[in-house]
Amino acid sequence: MAVIQWYPGHMAKALRQAKENLKTVDIVLELVDARLPESSRNPELVNILKNKPAIIVLTKMDLADPKETQRWINYYEATGQPAVAVDSTNGSLKVIEKKINNVLADKLEKRQEKGIKSKKISVMCIGIPNVGKSTLLNHMVKKNVASVGDKPGVTKKQQWLKAGKNLQLLDTPGILWPKFEDPLVGQKLALTGAIKDQLFHDDDIALYALEFFKEKAPQKLQERYRLTNEEMTASDVDTLLAITKNAGFRDDYDRGAQRLIQDIRKQKLGRYTLDPVLQIAGRTTKKEKQND
Ligand SMILES: Nc1nc2c(ncn2[C@@H]2O[C@H](COP(=O)(O)OP(=O)(O)OP(=O)(O)O)[C@@H](O)[C@H]2O)c(=O)[nH]1
Ligand SMILES: [Mg+2]
């Protein structure tokens, strides 16, 4: 099976730092992308989070299929993992503060009994690159203090931010893991912009995307690229060639692939969820059964 092998040194360092900080923070916000909640979960982070209060925050819910997002929340909550979904570019993030207070209720009560009222709750925000950590924290502190950008690897080092009287928040650099055992995970991460574009072939990602949208949103695909029925039912390579031609790129297949990827990232083909909860939850249950 093809495995993408790469792991920049700064991510190894960021993982070490995250491990160190776990000892001091009260709670962790583990950010995942609502369009691919499991594929955007870094197994190494999940591993170090054992026994630490944590909340799974599904970001970019405005880009994902709302029904699937709700199913994911239900699934996580049912498996004892507190979860919320947010759009950090719009609306209130009070839901996160509420969830933090909820998860830490016992600890906060004990602090109060001991008369420690002034201690702030310290929160570390972790997740893969470009998942929206800095955007979410800026929103929570109501200031643009952390740098954000529509590409992976914007935050280079940790930064503490203060939110109101009660919270202090730690922004961290995005961390991926050294090997994607399932190549599909790498393709999903690339399509949604979590991996630097230079690290994958546009046409591989475009072909994966075509297969997905042909099945899930054929009408949108057909309308946007003015594809005939024959072009829709042709092989994915031929459909991509038709898209390239219809976009006016003649036979510049790479530009066709880039256009499709950019369009999907900009939501021109609508909201979508690449990780289906039922399939993945089913797989987990099967695995659990095998381990029993
Ligand atoms: N639509 C939408 N876009 C979001 C949301 N949250 C973040 N973004 C966008 O996602 C991009 C990445 O956001 P960042 O906050 O820089 O992501 P990050 O996780 O800090 O990334 P690194 O620092 O590179 O690890 C930016 O273009 C944000 O505007 C969201 O909830 N919805
Ligand atoms: Mg950042």
Tell me the structural class: alpha/beta
User: What is the number of strand segments?
Assistant: 6
The strand order across the widest sheet is 3-2-1-4-6-5
Can you give the helix content as a percent range? 40-55%
H/I helix tally: 13
CATH-derived architecture of the largest domain: 3-Layer(aba) Sandwich
Radius of gyration: 21 Å
What molecules are bound to this protein? Answer: guanosine-5'-triphosphate, magnesium ion
Note the main sheet. Answer: 6 strands, mixed
Beta-strand content? 5-15%
Mean pLDDT: 91
Stated plainly, the CATH topology of the largest domain is called Rossmann fold
> Tell me, what's the shape?
elongated
Subcellular location: Cytoplasm
Family: Belongs to the TRAFAC class YlqF/YawG GTPase family. MTG1 subfamily.
Pfam families: MMR_HSR1
InterPro entries: G_CP_dom, GTP-bd, GTP-bd_ortho_bundle_sf, GTP-bd_ribosome_bgen, GTPase_MTG1, P-loop_NTPase
Describe the structure.
By secondary structure, the chain is α/β, with parallel strands linked by helices. The chain folds into two domains: 9-179, Rossmann fold (3-Layer(aba) Sandwich), CATH 3.40.50.300; 201-265, no CATH class. It has helices at residues 9-22, 43-48, 66-78, 94-103, 105-113, 133-141, 183-191, 202-216, 218-224, 229-233, 236-246, 253-265, 277-291, and strands spanning 27-33, 54-59, 83-85, 121-127, 159-163, 167-171. The chain has a six-stranded mixed sheet with strand order 3-2-1-4-6-5, with helices on both faces. A hairpin with a 3-residue loop joins strand 5 (159-163) and strand 6 (167-171). Helix 8 (202-216) packs across helix 9 (218-224). The longest helix is centred in the last third of the chain and has 15 residues, at 202-216. It is elongated. It starts with 8 loop residues before the first helix and ends with a helix. The structure holds guanosine-5'-triphosphate and magnesium ion (MG).
